[in-house]
Design brief:
With 508 residues, the chain is mainly α. The protein folds into three domains: 1-147; 162-192 and 203-416, no CATH class; 433-505, 2-Layer Sandwich (Fusion Protein Consisting Of Minor Coat Protein, Glycine Rich Linker, Tola, And A His Tag, Chain: A, Domain 2). Helix content is 82%, strand content 4%. The chain contains seven helices and three strands; from the N terminus they run H-H-H-H-H-E-E-H-H-E. The protein has a three-stranded antiparallel sheet. Helix 3 (165-197) packs parallel to helix 5 (310-432) and helix 4 runs antiparallel to helix 5 (310-432). The longest helix is centred in the last third of the chain and has 123 residues, at 310-432. It starts with a helix and ends with a strand. The model is unreliable at 1-5 (pLDDT under 50).
């Protein structure tokens, strides 16, 4: 029993010591309970004194090891806490620097916005001035066209009074066509002026350009239609001229026939006159022969009856001479009548020929006057066409100059819009960028960006590395964080410049 009491007391003391050590260990390791190894399970066994001493020594050694490990753990925790405090201080400093940088960027952006606004106002003023100059040039051109038209109309009116009804109708038709063309041109110019007044933004300029192209196509079609009409009119006039020429040739052939008939009639009259002369001569010779025969018979009768009736023979002789004289006078009268008839017929034919020549001359003069009037009308029509062509060329030149000015202005506006958008994108990306802790100053990389039309980032890839992979990844992340990026509203400009683009990321 005596030997049992010390062993029991030592066992109780050992158990109390173990409970105290366990409690102390539990209290010191509350903060790192999860990190510390699980507590050893102690099994209490009733031992003798030597074993209890050995066990106590072992427990002391274990406790010393635990305290040493705890001390090392505490030192590690302290070192980690100090490192974390240092990191927090660096992060605070970095945050302060970033806030300062953000303020500087915001101030710089504000300044740039003011400068952009000022530039836009200057561009608007320049655009208004250019539009004013274009309007003045158009007004001057319209005045010149009006003066030219008035002068042409006065000249045409003065010459139209001297022409015949057909030429007047042709000129009136041409004037009406010219007036229609002028009215169409005026309407087109008014439409253009109204469209130009609506040009305030880049997108509207593109739409206006499309409208102008469509209008130019319509005007070209109208011009081609007018040219076709003019060609048809020219063909009709040429056909009329050919018909008139054919008619003139027919008149000439008829006149040649009339002249041939007149010549034939004159030859016939001359032949009839010659026949009448020959007939009168033959009649005279016949009468002379008859007279000679009668004289011979009278002489024989007188010789036979000379003695019987001298007085009777003398009376008969006188009667015969009277009859012969009367016959000769009759023949002479017949000859003179035939000659007078032939002369009258020839005179009539001459007068008919003269009348035909006069008619031919009048026809020639009339045809010449008509040809001169037509030539004059054609010359005036050609002059009007040339004037209209000159007006059209001037209008086209003005449109080309206007289109060139508009294209230059649009190119300048597009360039400014692209530069402004890229600056805004760079600022937004820089604002979304978080500088890595170990990043050095002066780093830069080239990033290729793919966007949607809304500005949302589809892809951002570094294609020109800075040499620092962490910096490159931070730049790519900054582009994605800055989505959507500010892009122009003009779809064509967006597709050309910002659908896929690259920019150099170089934060200050």
């Amino acid at each position: 029993m005596k030997s049992f009491k010390p062993s029991l007391a030592q066992a109780i003391a050992l158990h109390i010591l173990i409970v105290l050590l366990f409690s102390f260990s539990f209290l010191t390791e509350t903060d790192d309970a999860k990190m510390s190894p699980p507590a050893d399970i102690i099994e209490a066994t009733v031992l003798d004194g030597a074993e209890i001493d050995a066990e106590a020594e072992r427990l002391k050694q274990n406790e010393a090891n635990k305290q040493h490990a705890e001390k090392q753990h505490q030192e590690q925790l302290e070192n980690a806490r100090k490192a974390e405090e240092q990191l927090l201080q660096q992060a605070k400093k970095q945050r302060v620097l970033e806030e300062q940088k953000i303020q500087e960027v915001a101030e710089k952006r504000k300044q740039e916005v003011l400068e952009e606004k000022k530039m836009q106002e200057q561009l608007a003023a320049k655009r208004k001035e250019e539009e004013k100059k274009l309007e003045e040039a158009k007004e001057r051109q319209a005045l010149e066209q009006k003066k030219a038209k008035e002068a042409a109309e006065k000249q045409k009116q003065a010459e139209l009074d001297k022409q015949k009804e057909v030429a007047e109708k042709q000129k009136q038709a041409e004037l009406e066509k010219q007036k229609e063309v002028a009215e169409k041109q005026k309407e087109a110019e008014k439409q253009k002026q109204l469209e130009k007044q609506k040009q305030q933004e880049v997108e509207r300029e593109a739409k206006l350009k499309e409208q102008k192209l469509a209008e130019a196509a319509r005007e070209k079609q109208q011009q081609e239609a007018e040219i076709k009409k003019l060609e048809q009119e020219k063909k009709l006039q040429e056909q009329k001229a050919l018909e008139q020429q054919k008619k003139l040739q027919e008149q000439k052939s008829e006149e040649a026939k009339r002249q041939e008939q007149a010549k034939q009639a004159e030859a016939k009259a001359e032949k009839e006159r010659q026949l009448a002369d020959e007939k009168a001569k033959a009649e005279k010779e016949k009468q002379a022969a008859l007279n000679a025969e009668k004289a011979k018979q009278a002489a024989e009768a007188e010789a036979r009856a000379k003695a019987e009736k001298d007085k009777q023979l003398a009376g008969e002789k006188a009667e015969k001479e009277r009859q012969a004289k009367a016959a000769a006078e009759k023949a002479e009268k017949e000859r003179l009548a035939a000659e007078a008839e032939a002369k009258a017929k020839a005179e009539k034919e001459r007068q008919a020929k003269s009348a035909a020549e006069k008619a031919e001359k009048a026809d020639k003069e009339r045809l010449a006057a008509e040809a001169a009037a037509k030539a004059k009308a054609e010359q005036e029509r050609q002059a009007a066409i040339a004037a209209a062509e000159k007006v059209e060329k001037d209008r086209q030149a003005a449109e080309a100059a206007e289109a060139a000015a508009a294209a230059a202005a649009k190119a300048q506006a597009d360039k400014q819009a692209v530069d402004s958008a890229k600056q805004m994108i760079a600022r937004k990306v820089e604002g979304a960028w978080t500088r890595p802790i170990n990043a050095t100053q002066g780093l830069r990389c080239t990033i290729q960006v793919k966007l949607l039309a809304s500005g949302d980032v589809m892809e951002a890839v570094v294609i020109g590395s800075s040499g620092d992979p962490i910096f490159d990844r931070s730049a790519e992340n900054a582009v994605r964080k800055a989505s959507p990026l500010p892009v122009p509203q003009d779809k064509n400009l967006f597709n050309q410049e910002f659908r896929v683009f690259t920019f150099v990321f170089k934060p200050e």
